[in-house]
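Hi,

I'm pasting everything inline rather than attaching a file, because the server keeps stripping attachments. The sequence lines come first, and each chain or strand is labelled.
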Amino acid sequence: MNYNEEFLSYINDINIEVTSSKEEIDSTYTLVMKKIRLNKKPKLGKKGMTLLILAAIIAASTISVVAYQLSIKESFPKVFNEQNSVGQIVPVEEKLPLVEQAGSYINQTVTQNDVKVTVNGVVGDSDTVYLSIDVEDITGKALQTEGGQLKFNSAYFHIDDGSEAGFYATGQYCWSERIDDGSIPSKATFLINEKTIVEDIIGKKATLVLTDLEELTSAKATDIEMTYDNVYDIYSQFETVKDEDFIEQAIPKESEKSTVNTPGFEHYFDNYPRNEKGEVIDGYALPYTDKEIAFSNKYPNTYVMNIGIKDKNLYILVTSSVEEEGKSFRDLALKNIVTGELIPLNGSSGSICYVDGGLEYGFTEPQKPNIYYSRFYFEGINSPEQLKDYVIETNAAINFQTVRKGEWRFDFDLSYQNTTKTFDVSSSCAIGEVNPVKFNISKIKISPISITVMGTSDDIIYDTPATIKMKDGSTVELSHCSSDTRDNNSSLKYIFPVVVDVDQVESVAVGDAVILIS
Amino acid sequence: MKGFSSKRRGVCNLDDNQIALLIKTNPSDGLHEAIKKYRGLVCVIISKVIGDRKQDIEECIADTFVTLWKSMNEADIINLKGYIVCIARNTAIDRYRMLIKKNIISFDEIEVASDDDIILEYENNDNIHILQSLILEMDEPDREIFIRKYFFFERIREISNQLNIDEILIKNRLYRGKIKLRKLLEERNVTL
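And the predicted assembly:
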């Protein structure tokens, strides 16, 4: 707080007489308790007085430690979801107790260089953690200069498992994702969500080391003078592209062969989907249309031919009647006009279509000659409505620059209820479609937030999708996987996209095996 | 102990030090006492910043006491009322700025940050302590007028009623006080 005590003392003495009704007091109290998840204890009576006096004596010489329940909704805003009865993903409500019992309050704070970092709490199971971290500039200054994506340069998480190897040899680097809405410039909340490399972590001591806050900048971002207010206004000019209308981009068999014949890349395409011809599909492209929508005064000969969303990716197909202009329309970024945050380009390709046509990778049909075609896609767009907040910029030199130097270190116990259930099973499956590896599954560990499938294999197994089937027939698709093979012991670890009631799980399908959970 | 009353069982008028201690040792009771004593004041301050947006006001009031609870373990709070007022003010201003940023309200809708709000202007600066010191150096009643206007966001009429000073006189004192304050800040090389 920025106020000196003399100033506070003066404010103390300014008399402003206002009272609240009992209803107002109770209402506020209820809301406060809800936010910090404390249960109201009986009002102070004689016994309470005695306790207060005793507490005063104790507090004078010691620091009192009180265990508080973690407020999931406050500390992990919009992190946990559930699947409702009609299959929609909604913020967790009914299954909130499952998350609450897997969480605990940490509330450790380290301040350095005017930046106060607080680890609020943890939600976890035997090998998964969600950590909530608040960051605040104590002087009230904005954390960022440009309003781009904010993250820590590094977030190193170490669990003390008794190993004698060095500190930096036995931990893991994690990604820190910002989860608040950015409405308060001097504050931010981050999430670290990882499957741990150490198993059975409950009760163990953990260390988190965060270094340097940095922001994504577009040092050379150029305004393209869009003639529309936002990308949605361009999107709404086109018919919605359905998933099945996207063109699969297939890798020719010869290209696949040359890759898998390279030592170390034998299993590179094992888990890629394939089309009817058996070709690897490594992406999707928008179909061509008859439309050409001009959208930029700076690129007057460049048009949007189609735009669509698939699997949380935004795809844009662009044509340019002037080749040089088409080639210069590069390095795109989507800029959020409210927060300034940038979504960098995830992929692009471009090609001129020559008079004699020809099959270009990604441009599977000859189109108009002498037209330059470009394809772009961005990750992180879930719905067309999201595009109302974005404009396109170009020549965005995307890089991260440090906005606050520092190292914030936290040591805490992973003390929360163990919600993981372990099932011994006997099953096997084939992982990978080309040169499949046999995975003998002997154990499954499942909690409301994750599942680990463990066993042995003769070779390395790679990430593979899985499906949870619930007793009511609904399913949860799992794609966020981390695979691990050491000395023939293999595991596939998945973090759930929604909170799962373990008692309602019927089976898990991995590779070509369906394993009953009982 | 000072402030305790045994006249009615279970009802105590605790002073600020006792409330602060209670929040640390028995948060649920401590917060209840703090809310009972200061909810009204917090509500008044927040309402002046964000108008009559009932839901936002309720959230901000609750957030104020949550922030108070969170702060209790970090430092000893000597001036509880002043501390609560500061938290309330900052919480309300943060919410106000968020509502503006999201175009939920416009600058015209609520009379808070006007062009001449010198405290808001300099508040996020590194030299906030200099600003506070200069305000404390003002003579009375200018000091109290200044803080009521720019810190508690009271209207001229309210200040006039509280201090029993003519409204025109208050306006004059505010005007001269601002000019003087700005000059003193510039002399100390305090910039925005």
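Residues 27-50 of chain B form the longest helix (24 residues).

If the labels don't parse on your end, tell me and I'll reformat.
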